[in-house]
């Protein structure tokens, strides 16, 4: 199936099965804002638990906080967001559509990459097992030609970004003959900077209101609480503060479903270290974070690191973890070595001392920071995209049919087990409910008695339930049930008393956490 079709199906599936709904749908929606449904919220909570526990449970030197969304407006002046949290935007005069100039150029780079990949694919099909991809890429004339074009464009683009040269960005768009996807024309405006922060007013106008911002990242809530946590928790460097919370950005190009939203959630860690050790810690966190992703079992080949060409104003090293979405490799998580920029700025703007006395060095300093920052919603999309499968299976009459199954990692699945009476009489529903009454303290269970067993299995497959338990006439006499596994579709007979242990072993986070050890 073409990746574009797969993505459309995934979006439809999310809505049909209660994962994600467009916001304010009965009023025709609100662009780039989404609501999570009954299963979506469970998956989201499980993702957050996986992240939170992997930070604060597994590391004795990491603690969590929950800071407010509204903060003193000077914080955003100090952090640089008021002056520099901008995207370069450009309008097409014919379609009146607005684009991010950097995204238009990135898409042009991706097009060239696509051409190279096509050449590689063609040659691979031609030469079969004999094909040496590395040699082909290094020697094939057409590939080399594309590669030179890519390198030239890439270098020019990186330089323009680093110099914040808006005229050059526009020139690149013109030289590359990039057209508006809607009008097909090259009738562009100049490139302008656009601040992404939402603002509102706090207090009544009579009292004199204060312009406040909806936070565009959760990180600043951690920085301004650094002294509070360090002192009250008697934390010793190196230590980390973790936070999960909403962030808001007035994104110009809000596309690709929940990939780029205007209201989203972040899971951020600020790890405070001794100056001079930050790049070591940066490497360490890079490895820890990629392991966290890979432990979910979606295939290591679907992740890559992308080193930043242009460093943010606060960073001395930065890398993204990218995942292969249906629309290509894209950022899921950013890891930044943020130096002492933020704490120093807050020290300067607040006039309060923000330092650490290091007893080993017998000196005080402003700590350096390594940050890991991941979007809950992007992680959600990653998991849904990797889990959505359409299998061809045979029904009872030997007819082929399509089975839509969400192969969610069991610890993240919203519903852990469905309990189903084979028929709606002879005491089977009561027995099924008895099992749920016992297991509901440990797992999110669902009772399902409607339709044939086959249809019920399909329904549970579509929401990603890892186990279905069927109660039949033998259950009353021998206390056994049939357990059916979502991925293999295998069924086995087990004692009711075994269910709790059997399911626990699969749905707990323990196996995932064990893979995260250093
Ligand atoms: N504190 C650093 C920071 O905010 P970022 O790279 O701008 O860095 C971190 O954002 C992560 O937040 C991204 O990797 C992405 O997963 C998520 N994110 C950022 N903007 C988003 C948006 N508009 N919609 C959904 N997720 C977003």
Give a structural overview:
It is a single chain. 39% of the residues lie in helices and 25% in strands. It is an alpha+beta fold and 518 residues long. The protein folds into three domains: 37-68 and 196-389, BirA Bifunctional Protein, domain 2 (2-Layer Sandwich); 86-194, Herpes Virus-1 (2-Layer Sandwich), CATH 3.30.40.230; 408-517, Rossmann fold. The strands form seven sheets. It has a seven-stranded mixed beta sheet with strand order 3-9-10-16-13-12-11. Helix 2 (38-57) crosses helix 13 (376-387), helix 5 (101-127) runs antiparallel to helix 7 and helix 7 (141-162) packs antiparallel against helix 8. It is globular, with a radius of gyration of 26 Å. The structure holds glycyl-adenosine-5'-phosphate. Glycyl-adenosine-5'-phosphate binds at residues 217, 219, 249, 251, 260-261, 264, 266, 268, 331-334, 371, 373-375, 377-378.
> Quick one: overall form?
globular
| Radius of gyration based on Cα positions | 26 Å
| Cα separation of the termini | 39 Å
Strand line-up in the sheet with most strands: 3-9-10-16-13-12-11
**Total beta strands:** 23
What is the CATH class designation of the largest domain?
A: Alpha Beta
- As residue ranges, the low-confidence spans are none
Determine the structural class based on helices, strands and strand pairing: alpha+beta
The CATH homologous superfamily of the largest domain: Bira Bifunctional Protein, Domain 2
Kindly state the mean pLDDT as a whole number? 94
CATH topology of the largest domain: BirA Bifunctional Protein, domain 2
Number of domains: 3
Distinct ligand kinds: glycyl-adenosine-5'-phosphate
H/I helix tally:
18
Beta-strand portion reads: 25-35%
